[in-house]
Design goal:
2 domains; ABC-type glycine betaine transport system substrate-binding domain-containing protein; D-Maltodextrin-Binding Protein, domain 2; cell membrane; 7-stranded mixed sheet; elongated; Dipeptide-binding Protein, domain 3; transport; carnitine transmembrane transporter activity; binds 1,1-dimethyl-prolinium; alpha/beta; two-stranded parallel ribbon; amine transmembrane transporter activity; single chain
């Protein structure tokens, strides 16, 4: 199997946590010495390579994570990870700059309360993938879920044009969450700007106070390195989503490959 796909795991952008976890996995499972390598590309390139492989029923190994529409659109499965390199479930935390609680208590409260489910995040992601503008998709989701949104904003005083800055990486999941919470905060009276950048600058922006918040901290493993590097320079408001997952994935028709271990000597 490995030779058929040039011993290559098809990955995404270099900065993603899933890429460094995959490098660790290749080492931990002795695949590196077996000539396996990780190919850097982008989510769009990876899913298009996956699409082609599935059309031809060819083997392929990709970096996979949930929530993401790749699991709804394609018959793929996670490989078991007995060495626990990718960790079990992950949660996505909301991380804010120090001092936000005193400077902008209303935004702080809404950000602190913000939480939703993988299914809800997927709904927004799928829309955006279908070509709906992310801000519009966020507005539609908010309109459809008034009770939940009220549970985040209930009793919070409206403000009048205070500015607020959120940073994020342009991954589908982060595009969805950042647009939804930004729109909720706009409805509370904030003038919200959202700015896309690489993952490391996202953490740096909140640590230095250049940005007010980010809602994309996949933990404990995927963004764990940044969490450690910037510890003490941000405030972690806890999970806005529970039940995320990160790992290696293959099409279900690869019936002999069920664990990362199965890639060895194949
Ligand atoms: N992801 C999606 C990111 C976090 C969000 C799993 C591709 C990563 O750092 O790997």
């Amino acid at each position: 199997m490995g030779s058929q796909i040039n011993y290559t795991v098809t990955g995404i952008d270099a900065g993603a946590g899933i890429m460094s976890s995959t490098q660790k996995a290749l080492k931990a499972y002795g695949l590196e010495s077996d000539n396996w390598q990780l190919q850097t590309s982008s989510t769009a390139a990876m899913t298009s390579t996956l699409d082609k492989a599935i059309q031809d029923k060819r083997p392929i190994v990709i970096t996979g994570w949930q929530p993401h529409w790749m699991f709804t659109k394609y018959p793929i499965k996670f490989l078991k990870d007995p060495k626990n390199v990718f960790g079990k479930a992950e949660h996505i935390d909301t991380v804010v700059r120090k001092g936000l609680k005193t400077d902008k208590p209303e935004a702080y409260t809404v950000l602190d309360r913000f939480h939703w489910t993988p299914a809800q995040m997927s709904e927004v992601m799928l829309k955006v993938n279908d070509g709906v503008d992310p801000e519009k998709a966020a507005k539609q989701w908010i309109k459809k879920n008034p009770k939940q949104v009220q549970s985040w904003t209930k009793g919070v005083k409206k403000v009048h044009g205070q500015s607020l800055k959120l940073t994020y990486v342009a991954w589908d999941s982060e595009i969805a969450s950042t647009n939804v919470i930004a729109q909720v905060l706009r409805n509370q009276g904030y003038k919200v700007t959202i700015q896309a950048m690489e993952i490391q600058p996202v953490w740096a922006s909140v640590a230095t106070g250049a940005a007010d918040a980010q809602v994309s901290a996949w933990l404990p493993k995927t963004s764990g390195l940044f969490y450690k590097d910037y510890k003490g320079k941000f405030e972690d408001l806890g999970p806005n989503l529970k039940g995320a997952k990160v790992g290696l994935a293959v099409p279900k028709y690869m019936t002999n490959i069920n664990s990362i271990e199965d890639l060895k000597n194949k």
